[in-house]
Design a protein that fits this description.
By secondary structure, the protein is mainly alpha-helical. It has eleven helices and no strands.
Length: 298
Amino acid sequence: MTDVAVDQTVRTDPGPAVDLPAVPVVRKRRSLLVYLSVLWLVVLIAAALLAAVLPLAPFATPVAAPRLGPQFGSLELLLGTDTLGRSMLSRIIYGARVSLVVGTVAGLVGFVIGSLIGLFAGYFGKRLDAGVSLVADAMLAFPPLILLLALASILEPSVPTILLGLTLLVIPAFIRLSRANTMSWSSREFVRAARNIGAGNFRILFREILPNLLAPLAAYLPIVMAALIVAEGSLSFLGLGIPPPQPSWGGMINDGKDAIATSPHLVFVPALVIFFTVFALNQVGDHLRTKFDRTMHD
């Protein structure tokens, strides 16, 4: 017997080469305004956090003649002085602490409370949903400024009072957003599959639905914070916000409104800071909504 070697190698003819069409890579264009907005917010937050170590005089200490215009030779006089000769730059930086803390804390508390209430209302529905919707609609229908003025007149004007009032304003908005998103996610296949395998309501709420709610709801947070900063500035402008000598942007506008004809920088400097901050937060919020809110992609 002779062994016969069998070549089991299969050879295939590749045939003629086919030229595939070149598909260009789709690159998302990123707006320059978003980068500038982030840069502004980073600089503002860093200045507010490092205000105590910056080479600036305390916000209550006069540094030059009153109502002095912007001077480029000195850091303290870069934005001029107010009606009492205090550094406008120092007061702007220390006022940023008030506006950023109020906007961030009130926004986060309203986000947490409103999201949880809307989560339960949208999932369980029926009487709970009807009651929560009625209360949220009533709070949204109540004039915000009247509510803030009522709280400021009943309670002593202070940071906790402003935080309480602004938190009450943003809770209904997050309730509506959380409720609508919860009702949408509750009908998805993975939620029904979890219910069919015996998962409890709390597991479905906090393991299946809540993770999908956090990104789109948190994307609205910068926009809400921008509205809260404007509301705090309005209260301070009316004299019902942060009491002096603690500076606030709205209070600085109120202090300089009588001298706007002769010293316009007393009004325009804090007004521009409010404008740039609110504009930056809105730009960041719109960018986050476009990136994380799935309803906008649909």
